[in-house]
């Protein structure tokens, strides 16, 4: 990603000097923040949980889960439940999230997964082929020739 960002910035600099271009901007490949959940398979297994079980909990907490539908005339609206933003937006709160397993065991998400924040590209900047970054977006605005 660093090499692609460097080349895009160089192309941006060249385009800014092209006659007729009023602005040029390369899409930056940094500035995104991600919550990484690294599931400890052995710890999850001690509580009778699989990786899929932990992933399902994380998915519901962060993204919510559609539990029904409201019908108003011809329109349908999903009913989505999820944890409050103050829990979802804090890594420490996510770590302390209580979990009750199917077996009745009680633990926290932090006991079965390492939760960290990492930096990366904004979601709109990632373009891949076979999981390798392959392209960049450069926006150039030409001037209009009015005669």
UniProtKB/TrEMBL annotation:
GO molecular function: xenobiotic transmembrane transporter activity
Gene Ontology terms: cellular component: plasma membrane
Gene3D superfamilies: Multidrug efflux transporter AcrB pore domain (3.30.70.1440), Multidrug efflux transporter AcrB TolC docking domain, DN and DC subdomains (3.30.2090.10)
Domain of life: Bacteria
PANTHER family, per database record: CATION EFFLUX SYSTEM PROTEIN CUSA (PTHR32063:SF19), PTHR32063
Name of the molecule in the record: Cobalt-zinc-cadmium resistance protein CzcA, Cation efflux system protein CusA
């Amino acid at each position: 990603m660093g090499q692609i960002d460097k080349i895009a910035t160089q192309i941006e600099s060249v385009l800014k000097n092209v006659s007729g271009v009023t602005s040029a901007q390369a899409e930056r490949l940094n500035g995104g923040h991600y919550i990484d959940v690294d599931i400890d398979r052995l710890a999850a297994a001690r509580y009778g949980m699989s990786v899929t079980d932990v992933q399902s909990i994380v998915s519901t907490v962060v993204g919510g889960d559609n539990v029904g539908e409201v019908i108003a005339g011809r329109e349908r609206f999903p009913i989505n439940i999820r944890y409050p933003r103050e829990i979802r937006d804090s890594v420490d709160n996510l770590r302390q999230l209580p979990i009750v397993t199917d077996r009745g065991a009680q633990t926290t998400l932090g006991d079965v997964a390492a939760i960290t924040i990492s930096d990366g590209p904004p979601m709109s900047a990632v373009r891949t082929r076979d999981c390798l970054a392959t392209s960049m977006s450069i926006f150039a605005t030409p001037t209009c020739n009015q005669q």
